[in-house]
C-alpha cells in the first residue's frame, strides 16, 4: 500500500463514478501571507484551512501544505511515473479529512488523507503561478530557513482540467509513510520554463549543505491494488468498474497529458495500416480468382449469341 507507483495505463480501470475534482477557497488575496520553508527534504508552502476539496471525493478534505519533488540537471525527478516515464518534477497538495480535528489525528486513519498530484514539464513559457514560489527560493537556501510570501491563486499550480485523473489508495512518500492516502494524480501536466525548472533544481541545499536534488522516493510495488481512471485510457478499453462499485476501494499553465496523445495515434495508425493491408490482400485474391476463371475453358460459363435484327416488314 506504499507510494509512489508506476501507473500502467493499459491496466487502469475506467470508473464512471469518479467525478471531477472541485476546489474551494484556493484563490488567496495578496495580503494573506503564507510561510514558505526549506525543511531539508523539499520546499514546503503552508496553506490556510480555508482551502478544501469539496467535490470528487465522498467526503471533504481540508488543505494543509503543498510541496514539490524534482530531479537534478542530469535527470527528471517526479515520484509517480506513467508507463515507466518519469517527469521533470511533481507537485503534491496535501489535505486531511474534515471529519477529524487535525492532520495529526487524520493521518492514522484509512480515510484520513487526500493528496492531489500533478506532473511538471519543461516548456517554452514561464509559469506565473509557480513563479510566486520560485522567486523566493534564494531566501531559503539552507535547511530550516523560511520566508513569508504573498497569497496567490493556488489553483493555478494545478491543471485547469480537473476531470481527468488517476486514483488509487497509497501512502505518504516521506516518513512515517502512513498508508492512509487517497491519491489523485492528474492526467494533464503543468509547464515551467527551462529557467524556472533550473531554479527549482539548483536553488536549495539539504542538511549536509549539499544541493537538494533527486528528492523523490523510489517506485513501490503495486501489490494487487487497482488503479482507477476517470477517463478511458486505451482506444478499445474494455475494463470498467461495475456500476455501484466503490470507486475509492482501490485495494487491488497546462500543456500535454501524462497519457500522451502519441500513444493513441500509434494505436490508431497501426489499426488503419492493418485494415489497409487486409483490403489490399483481398483485392489481389479476388483479382487472381477472376483471371483464373476467364483463362480456364473448362470453367467458362459464357455463351456467345449473335445479335439479330427483327424484320418488321
From TrEMBL:
<dbReference type="InterPro" id="IPR036398">
    <property type="entry name" value="CA_dom_sf"/>
</dbReference>
<dbReference type="InterPro" id="IPR001148">
    <property type="entry name" value="CA_dom"/>
</dbReference>
<keyword id="KW-0472">Membrane</keyword>
<dbReference type="InterPro" id="IPR018338">
    <property type="entry name" value="Carbonic_anhydrase_a-class_CS"/>
</dbReference>
<keyword id="KW-0325">Glycoprotein</keyword>
<dbReference type="GO" id="GO:0005886">
    <property type="term" value="C:plasma membrane"/>
</dbReference>
<comment type="function">
    <text>Reversible hydration of carbon dioxide.</text>
</comment>
<feature type="domain" description="Alpha-carbonic anhydrase">
    <location>
        <begin position="1"/>
        <end position="231"/>
    </location>
</feature>
<keyword id="KW-0812">Transmembrane</keyword>
<dbReference type="GO" id="GO:0004089">
    <property type="term" value="F:carbonate dehydratase activity"/>
</dbReference>
<dbReference type="GO" id="GO:0008270">
    <property type="term" value="F:zinc ion binding"/>
</dbReference>
<keyword id="KW-1133">Transmembrane helix</keyword>
<feature type="transmembrane region" description="Helical">
    <location>
        <begin position="264"/>
        <end position="285"/>
    </location>
</feature>
<dbReference type="InterPro" id="IPR023561">
    <property type="entry name" value="Carbonic_anhydrase_a-class"/>
</dbReference>
<keyword id="KW-0479">Metal-binding</keyword>
<keyword id="KW-0456">Lyase</keyword>
<protein>
    <recommendedName>
        <fullName>Carbonic anhydrase</fullName>
        <ecNumber>4.2.1.1</ecNumber>
    </recommendedName>
</protein>
<dbReference type="Pfam" id="PF00194">
    <property type="entry name" value="Carb_anhydrase"/>
</dbReference>
<keyword id="KW-0862">Zinc</keyword>
<comment type="similarity">
    <text>Belongs to the alpha-carbonic anhydrase family.</text>
</comment>
Amino acid at each position: 500500500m506504499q507510494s509512489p507507483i508506476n501507473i500502467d495505463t493499459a491496466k487502469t480501470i475506467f470508473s464512471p463514478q469518479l467525478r471531477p475534482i472541485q476546489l474551494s477557497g484556493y484563490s488567496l488575496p495578496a495580503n494573506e501571507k503564507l510561510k514558505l520553508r526549506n525543511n531539508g527534504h523539499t520546499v514546503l508552502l503552508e496553506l490556510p484551512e480555508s482551502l478544501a476539496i469539496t467535490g470528487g471525493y465522498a467526503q471533504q478534505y481540508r488543505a494543509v501544505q503543498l510541496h514539490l519533488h524534482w530531479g537534478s540537471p542530469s535527470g527528471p525527478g517526479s515520484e509517480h511515473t506513467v508507463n515507466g516515464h518519469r517527469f521533470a518534477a511533481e507537485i503534491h497538495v496535501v489535505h486531511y479529512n474534515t471529519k477529524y480535528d487535525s492532520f495529526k489525528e487524520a493521518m492514522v486513519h484509512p480515510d484520513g488523507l487526500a493528496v492531489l498530484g500533478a506532473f511538471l514539464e519543461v516548456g517554452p513559457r514561464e509559469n506565473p503561478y509557480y513563479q510566486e514560489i520560485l522567486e523566493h527560493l534564494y531566501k531559503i537556501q539552507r535547511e530550516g530557513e523560511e520566508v513569508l510570501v504573498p497569497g496567490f491563486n493556488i489553483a493555478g499550480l494545478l491543471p485547469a482540467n480537473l476531470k481527468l485523473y488517476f486514483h488509487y489508495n497509497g501512502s505518504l512518500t516521506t516518513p512515517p509513510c502512513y498508508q492512509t492516502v487517497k491519491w489523485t494524480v492528474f492526467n494533464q501536466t503543468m509547464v515551467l520554463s527551462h529557467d524556472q525548472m533550473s531554479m527549482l533544481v539548483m536553488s536549495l541545499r539539504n542538511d549536509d549543505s549539499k544541493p537538494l536534488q533527486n528528492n523523490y522516493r523510489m517506485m513501490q510495488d503495486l501489490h494487487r491494488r487497482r488503479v482507477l481512471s476517470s477517463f478511458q485510457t486505451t482506444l478499445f478499453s474494455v475494463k470498467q468498474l461495475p456500476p455501484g462499485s466503490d470507486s475509492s476501494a482501490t485495494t487491488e499553465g497546462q500543456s500535454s497529458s501524462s497519457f500522451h496523445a502519441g500513444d493513441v495515434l500509434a494505436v490508431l495508425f497501426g489499426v488503419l495500416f492493418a485494415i489497409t493491408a487486409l483490403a489490399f490482400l483481398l483485392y489481389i485474391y479476388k483479382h487472381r480468382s477472376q483471371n483464373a476463371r476467364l483463362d480456364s475453358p473448362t470453367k467458362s460459363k459464357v455463351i456467345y449469341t449473335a445479335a439479330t435484327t427483327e424484320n418488321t416488314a
